[in-house]
Design brief:
With 277 residues, this protein is mainly alpha-helical. The protein contains 7 helices and 6 strands; from the N terminus they run ββαβαβαααββαα. The chain has helices at 74-93, 114-127, 159-170, 174-181, 183-194, 224-241, 255-272; strands spanning 10-13, 38-41, 108-109, 135-136, 209-211, 220-222. α1 packs across α2.
Length: 277
Amino acid sequence: MRTSRTGRTLAALAAMLAGVALTAGAPADPLQVDRVVLMMRHGIRPPTKAQPMPIGTAAAAWPTWSVKPGWLTEHGASAIVAVADFDRIGFIKAGLLPLTDCPTRIALLADSDQRTIATAASYAKGVAPGCSLTIEHRPQDEPDPMFNPIESGQAPLDPARAAAAIDAAVGPRGIATTERGMKPLLIRLDRVLCGSATATCGVAREPTTIRPATATSRPKLGGALDRASTAAQILLLEYAEGKPANEVGWGRATASDIAAFGAFHALEFRLLARPPY
């Protein structure tokens, strides 16, 4: 899901669990799982800003949430507990966790956002119920270079190589052609955002641009495709939170709409995050 720090606000939960180590000789027969390393995103959250998108993007006010912008919701925490409980059953079957006793070899590491710290805590509750597990993280909201290597200068980008990689992903016809290919879906999204008030509303009015990378900042979309990606994620969050139907896209977004709008977020990542460089 998109955040103010897209692609780098992770809750990395490394479950290093005891198993049977393999020797340097012939492989064990049958092979057994030695450890599990699990990396995951945070659970369900509201938009990261009180005003989720610029005024005029939608015809009406966005729905309210029960927690601060960007924080893990109660429903999101419950969902993470359920995921962890499912994982726990698999880990027990694999011989990595004890059936009843508290585990002694689980390490949990989280980014410093509230939502990732709370996600790690919820995962701990589900994977080891009744036990006290330590979660390693920096103080809340203190930048962590491990999760922000580019922005912290630990892994500087080569802007020329980044630009070449993005140009190759976009293709020779440019980002305007990419946007034209998404036009029908942009119109569909604007109908949800604006209802009948389409003259001065929606995401499709501003041409898409790409802000190039610097040594310490990633490339970024601007304009129609950028705003469409953000709007699509907000609608998905509303749906995943289980908000009333009249609050999910103001009652104008169906489940099939929300699934289709996911193409905007996938496109953004294909262009700006997936190129091998």
